[in-house]
Amino acid sequence: MPSPEPPPSRRVFFGFWPNETQRAEFAHATRKAVRASGGRPVPAENLHATVLFVGSVLTSNMPVLTALAARAAAQARPLELVFDRVEFWEKAHVLVATTSAASAAEHTVAEALNRVLERETSRAGMHSDVKPFHAHVTLARKVGRVTHGLQMHPVTWRLSELVLVDSKTEPAGPVYTVLESWPLGAATG
């Protein structure tokens, strides 16, 4: 007897997805550091800041997840992230851009989302990877080590929405698809 097929699911995360102009500016500002890293560059169309990695979610639970995200996004305000540092994260073998001065606003949406998800996802059988939010953008993967060239020109992202992204791992690298978005601060007047 063949084993039953697993129920359909998606691998998803919440994030901030900048517009095309912001992504192009970001790629330009970090290209020397990426080249110096010797790693596999992240394509400009994939540049984003992950707010919360959820992981595999049953398709039947997606409406619950999107309702939670709408509530969390409504509790936050639009924000501005200034990326001005490049770091090599040795354990993950990635080169990332980070912010040297974290703002309270950037943590608000992540904390609201974390609170809502922690409280309610287990009721729907979901488990998310809740960690303190540290704004970063992955620039290159499979980086062995970096000895120089970790500089970038500051880039400002003005962000007004939270997105839910489907993540598929292909041989050529991750493929991201924005599934849904919610305006930040929709509950405020």
- Could you spell the SSE succession in H and E letters? EHEEHEEEHEEEE
Q: Give the CATH class.
A: Alpha Beta
Please identify the structural class as seen in this structure: alpha+beta
For the largest sheet, list the strands in their spatial order. Answer: 3-1-9-10
Tell me the count of domains. Answer: 1
Q: Do you know the CATH architecture?
A: Alpha-Beta Complex
Radius of gyration based on Cα positions: 17 Å
CATH topology title: Cyclic Phosphodiesterase, Chain: A
Within CATH, the superfamily carries the name Cyclic phosphodiesterase
Give the arrangement of secondary structure elements.
Blueprint: E1 9-16, H1 20-37, E2 40-41, E3 49-58, H2 62-74, E4 79-83, E5 85-89, E6 94-98, H3 104-120, E7 136-141, E8 155-159, E9 161-170, E10 173-183
Task: Describe it.
- 32% of the residues are buried.
- The chain has 189 residues and is of the alpha+beta class.
- Strands 3-1-9-10 form a 4-stranded antiparallel sheet. A 4-stranded antiparallel sheet has the order 2-7-6-5, with helices on one face.
- The radius of gyration is 17 Å and the shape is globular.
- It has 3 helices and 10 strands; from the N terminus they run E-H-E-E-H-E-E-E-H-E-E-E-E.
- It has a single domain, classed as Cyclic phosphodiesterase (Cyclic Phosphodiesterase, Chain: A), CATH 3.90.1140.
